[in-house]
Design brief:
Elements (H helix, E strand, L loop, with lengths): L9 H68 L6 H20 L4 H32 L1 H7 L2 H80 L13 H60 L3 H17 L6 H29 L8 E4 H11 L1 H7 L2 E4 L4 E4 L1 H17 L8 E9 L2 E8 L31 H11 L4 E4 L7 E7 L2 H16 L1 H5 L18 H7 L5 E4 L2
Parallel strand pairs: 2-4
Antiparallel strand pairs: 1-3, 2-8, 4-5, 5-7, 6-7
Length: about 575
């Protein structure tokens, strides 16, 4: 608001200039209207008054001549018929004079000359025409002709001269009116020229004013903005010209300051990010060194530690076999503890080595058919299934990209856990199924075992974490940690489904192949276009892309086994 108080705004200036031009043009238009009206009046006077007056003056002279000729003819012949032109001329004279008086109402000189003509005509009729007519009718043609003398002729010539004077007066009036027409026409032309000059001058003033008030300040502002856009964010933008431009310059400068502050913050953030990156680089180097140490530890654990551990285990077993029963019962118990501890240490070291090698010793991703993998898993777990009378089933499984040995280890661990954590006196049933969710395969391993409490759902994937005593369920507690690491190495996630009513359901995801995703979307589109056909489809159809057609329980697997599912039962 302060900038607007420093002078007239651009709008106010333009409105003021246009107002002045408008007032001038309106004044000129009013003057032109008045002059045009006056000019029209003068033209009407020339065309409708002075012109007809000349004609009527000629008609008046003609009527007087007819009267004089008729009187002379009657005086010669004494024929009453010769007076007809006299009477007609008299009537024409009266009509013509009446018309001329109306036309000459605005011209006193014409009226005055007209009265002179009438007076002389009336005097001629009283002194000459009427006496001649009366004498001829009474005494005959000779007497009438005796009254027509040179004096009477001169008297009529006076009438004729008065008519000529009348015509001269009419010509003078007509010329004066024509001069007025020329004057008003010239004034009208001058006014039009002045109006054109006003418009031209106003246009020039407008162009110059816009150049000074609009174009130059705007060009200066654009130049400053371009300097800022070129990278000079510290350049102060200062406006000139109308207050609107100064306010616009202030707003743009405010934006510049804000951008400059944000750029400063970005620079600071970039410096912090660079510092963080340097720290991350150091940490990465430290992690690399740590990984080398871990690899060295794994090498030592797999070679240097294994040898003395095997010796300890071997000699403890020799002691157990040779001196069993020769020592007291407590000594036999101690030897058994030593043998068991050495064997458990070997298993822990081997499992730890297997855990550390995941993702480090890689063979590269290939397309892996999980149905073939499940066949290998069935072979690996055959002994355990025979011992526990377990049943292993699986539905149609997809083909994914991954490392086959790791995926085999993953599914083998899940199946082994399901068989191990079984309920007493209940034959284990394990079912593996898959369904496509968006662009991932969700694979489930469900059993009818002892189950997992919801509060321990995340705890079971921690390395060496056990929920039961080793006497109840043997093992090192690293199997599900290996499962989690393999799944995450393949870009998936693993969790326990705590919503199952019986047993345990462990689910994990693996990225699906693009062709599987496209096929599933095409099938979904087909089902949308043909809902009736979908409703009529048998419920037992097994579609790898449709989770609703694949059972997630062992009971459902038994039904699905007749439609492409696979079943491995050992009893």
């Amino acid at each position: 608001m302060k900038a607007y108080q420093q002078g007239w705004t651009l709008r106010r200036r333009v409105v003021a200039l246009l107002s002045v031009v408008l007032v001038l043009l309106l004044g000129l238009a009013a003057a032109e209207a008045v002059v045009a009206a006056k000019n029209r009046q003068n033209i009407d006077a020339v065309l409708l008054k002075t012109g007809p007056l000349r004609v009527k003056a000629q008609e008046l002279l003609s009527a007087l001549l007819d009267q004089e000729t008729s009187v002379r003819g009657y005086a010669v012949n004494a024929d009453r018929k010769d007076l007809a032109p006299y009477e007609a001329g008299l009537a024409r004279e009266r009509d013509t004079v009446a018309t001329m008086e109306q036309l000459a109402a605005d011209y006193p000189g014409v009226l005055r000359e007209l009265q002179v003509v009438e007076q002389q005509a009336a005097r001629w009729r009283a002194d000459v025409a009427e006496p001649v007519i009366a004498t001829t009718a009474r005494s005959g043609p000779a007497a009438g002709q005796a009254l027509i003398t040179d004096q009477t002729r001169r008297q009529f010539d006076g009438v004729r001269a008065s008519v000529a004077q009348l015509q001269s007066e009419i010509l003078v009036v007509r010329q004066q009116t024509a001069d007025k027409v020329n004057q008003t026409g010239n004034v009208l032309v001058v006014l039009l020229i002045v109006a054109a000059l006003v418009v031209a001058i106003a246009g020039v003033v407008m162009v110059l004013s816009l150049d000074r008030m609009l174009i130059r300040p705007l060009a200066g502002l654009v130049g400053q903005v371009r300097e800022v856009a070129a990278g000079d964010y510290q350049h102060h933008i200062e406006g000139s010209g109308p207050p609107e431009f100064r306010v616009l310059a202030e707003d743009i400068d405010g934006m510049r300051q804000k951008i400059a502050r944000e750029l400063a913050e970005v620079r600071e953030a970039r410096e912090r990010i660079e510092w963080v990156n340097s720290q991350l680089q150091k940490q990465a180097e430290e992690l690399t060194r740590s990984n080398r140490d871990l690899e060295q530890f794994a090498y030592v654990a797999s070679h240097d530690l294994q040898e003395p551990l095997r010796k300890v285990a071997s000699f403890c077993q020799l002691l157990q076999r040779r001196y069993a029963g020769q020592l007291d019962e407590r000594a036999d118990q101690y030897i058994a503890f030593a043998v068991d501890g050495a064997q458990r240490m070997q298993r822990l070291i081997n499992d730890l080595l297997a855990f550390s090698r995941i993702g480090r010793l890689t063979t590269g991703f290939t397309e892996v058919d999980l149905n073939k993998v499940m066949g290998d898993v069935a072979g690996q777990t055959e002994a355990a299934r025979q011992y526990s009378d377990a049943e292993l089933t699986w539905g149609e499984l997809p083909t994914i990209r991954g490392e086959e040995p790791l995926l085999t280890n993953l599914l083998a661990n899940l199946v082994s856990n399901s068989i191990k954590f079984r309920r007493p006196d209940v034959p284990p049933k394990v079912h593996v199924s898959a369904r496509l969710v968006d662009d991932e395969w969700e694979i489930s391993c469900q059993d009818n075992g002892i189950g997992i409490e919801p509060e321990f759902a995340d705890k079971i994937f921690v390395i060496f974490q056990r929920l039961h005593a080793k006497d109840a369920y043997p093992g090192t507690g690293i199997g599900l940690a290996i499962v989690k690491k393999i799944v995450e190495y393949h870009g998936g996630r693993v969790w326990v489904d705590t919503g199952t009513e019986e047993g345990t359901a462990i689910r994990f995801t693996l990225p699906a192949l693009p062709e599987d995703v496209e096929a599933a979307r095409a099938a979904e589109a087909a089902r949308t276009d043909d809902a009736t056909a979908t409703d009529a489809e048998p419920a037992g159809t097994d579609d790898p892309a449709d989770s609703s057609t694949r059972g997630d329980t062992p009971e459902a697997a038994a039904e699905g086994g007749t439609t492409g599912g696979m079943k491995e039962t050992v009893g």
